[in-house]
Every structure is written in C-alpha cells, then in structure tokens.
Amino acid sequence: MHELSMAQGIINAVLETAEANNATEVNEVTVEVGRLAMINPEQLEFILGVLIENTIMEDAKIVFEEIPAEIECNDCKFHGEAILDDSDHYAPLVKCPECDSLSVETLNGKDIVVKNIVIEKPDDA
Amino acid sequence: MHQVADVEVAKNIMDANKRLADKNLKNLEEKDIFCVDFVGAIGSGKTTLVEEIIDNTDYKIGVLAGDVISKFDAGRIEKHNVPVVGLNTGKECHLDAHLVGHGLEDLPLDDLDMVIIENVGNLICPVDFDLGSHLRIVVVSVTEGDDTVEKHPIIFQTSDVVVINKVDLADAVGADADKMVADAKKLNPNVKVIKSSLKQGIGLDEIIQVIEEAMN
C-alpha cells in the first residue's frame, strides 16, 4: 500500500547511480523484493511505469527478484529459510521448518533493494 | 558511439528509514525518554488509549499524533494539556522515521519522560516502517470483526502487545473476543494480549502495567 514512496526511492537510487556513471539511458533495473515486505510487485511496477515517464529510465525493463525469508527460530534455534504459509494470506505466516513454531526472528526478507542497473553511456565517458 | 554497462547499485530502500529510526531511538535514550507507538485500524481506539494513559498516569508525556490529512486527533489530545505535534502524512498510509524525527524536534523533550506515537489508522503499511520506539502496541476492536487478527498476521507477529478493545460490544456485533485473543497468541506466542473496553475503564490498568514493565 505504500508502493508510491517505495517507487520514488527506487527511482532516486537508479537515477543517482546512472548520473554518476554518465548514463544516457537506463536499459534494465533489477530490484530485490523481500517476500515479507508489504509490497505487491505488480502495483510497484505499475506506479514505477508512471513515475519514470520523461526520465532516462523511461524505457527500462524492471526485473523483480524475490528474496526468501531467512529466520532464526526462538524455540529450536533453527537458522535458515522459513516456511511461508500463504494459503490464507498474500502476506504469509512465517514458520520454522523444523518445529513449526511461529516464534521466530526474521533476519532477511523484509527489504527492497535496488541491486543493479544496465545503462548505456558514451564510449569516452 | 555507445557502450552498455552493468552497474551495481546495491541500495536498500528500507535502510534510510531504519537509519533514521535508530537515530530517533538514540535521541530519545539520550534524554532518558521511553517511547511507545500505537498502531491499529481506523476507529480501533488508539486516540482514546492515548487520552486514558495521559489522564491516569503521572508521566510527563508528549504525543506525536499521526493522521493522513486532518488534525482532529491532535486537537483531542491537546485538551489533556500535554504537548502534542500532529503529523500529517498527506498521501501516505503510515508514519515513517523521517516524519517522527521532525515531530520529535517540535516536542519539548527535555521536559518529558514518555513519548507516545499514534500511527495512522492502518494494520498493513506500518509493518514496514520502524519508528524508533521501545514498544509497539497494536490496538484492534471487536467491532472490526473477530477475523481481523488472523487476516493481518504480520502486524500481530511484529508487535509487542495486543489490545483487543471494545469487548463490551462483542455480543452486540456477534464477535468472539476470545477467538481474537487465541489468534494473536497463535501468531505470536510471546505476545502479551489484553482485553479492554477503554470507554468503560476496563483493561487500562493492565495496559499501563505492561508499559511500565517494559520501561524497567
């Protein structure tokens, strides 16, 4: 539901890096989306498409990579990828795969990270 | 001529908020202030809980009242003679650490020992935005329907305390408050769950006690 501010953050990060590298155009942007971030990639893509009009990333292909949820279990101390039970929810329940506990610390899988961009730039830049 | 280059960005969009949240917490701890933030849906009873805590404790409290566009909550709390800053998010559905940081600048922190942050009415978006508080309390009322807890698992998994409010109205709206308690416990086995009816003064002592336990 806060895709607008996320999209603006992504665009700022992309344009900052593109300009620092003298890009004339951005061809591709890869964004890692944590499975537990309260973001719907489809909505994010839609709003990105609106906001990038008339920028050098206007024609960029946006690639989303899903990052799994990494946890440590408070009960059995398991450390690794969680089971995500999304049978009833888009936002899943985070469970320990070893003991089924829901009492877990989430170590990874909540973030939105702009990973890399593919740019075009002049030969002499 | 052009060349194509693959450039690493590695920028975490959530990091900026996390850094500011850590800064808010440090700022509060330097002044020995305890900070609690209330999240919950529209009409769940967050503002009433803020008012009751102000009126029934001796803490020197300052309040950051989040609202999308209005100042009504800030106006209500002001009547209790405490410093309050209204934070309007405008287009956004949640408070973030940046807004809270500016709000703290406008509170007389040297004269306070507790800051209460009341988030925008929403059970979804605030999950992604740490504000820098010590304790997060989610307020949910039986009138929202007794499936509200199970429908919004992450906010209940990431909060420290769950308040099930308006239990006196449960029968009238056909809601099972104990189901909501059980759902919260299932989602977050370590969470403290308190049933309340703030308008009737039920459950308030227990909520204040939980806040005080977290302070010590």
Mean pLDDT of chain B: 92
Broad structural category of chain A: alpha+beta
CATH architecture verdict of chain A:
2-Layer Sandwich
Fraction of residues in β-strands of chain B: 15-25%
Structurally, the number of domains of chain B stands at: 1
Rg of chain A (CA only): 18 Å
Assigned CATH architecture of chain B: 3-Layer(aba) Sandwich
Question: Which percent bin holds the helix content of chain A?
Answer: 10-25%
Number of strands of chain B: 8
Sheet of most strands of chain A: 3 strands, mixed
Report the total helices of chain B.
9
Order of helices and strands of chain B: EHEHEHEHEEHHEHHEH
Structural class of chain B: alpha/beta
Shape designation of chain B: globular
Would you mind describing this structure in some detail?
The complex is a heterodimer of chains A (125) and B (216). By secondary structure, chain A is an alpha+beta fold. Chain A has helices at residues 3-20, 41-51; strands spanning 25-34, 61-67, 70-73, 79-81, 83-85, 93-95, 104-108, 112-122. In chain A, strand 5 and strand 6 (93-95) form a beta hairpin. The radius of gyration of chain A is 18 Å and the shape is elongated. The mean pLDDT of chain A is 88. With 216 residues, chain B is an alpha/beta fold. Chain B has a single domain, classed as Rossmann fold, CATH 3.40.50. Chain B contains 9 helices and 8 strands. Chain B has helices spanning 15-30, 46-56, 72-78, 97-105, 148-151, 153-158, 170-173, 177-187, 204-215; strands at 2-12, 34-40, 61-67, 84-88, 114-118, 135-141, 161-165, 192-195. Chain B has a 7-stranded parallel beta sheet with strand order 4-3-5-2-6-7-8, sandwiched between helices. In chain B, strand 3, helix 3 (72-78) and strand 4 (84-88) form a beta-alpha-beta unit. In chain B, helix 1 runs parallel beside helix 4 (97-105). The longest helix of chain B is centred in the N-terminal third of the chain and has 16 residues, at 15-30. At the A-B interface, helix 1 and strand 8 of A face strand 1 and helix 6 of B. Strand 8 (112-122) of chain A pairs antiparallel with strand 1 (2-12) of chain B.
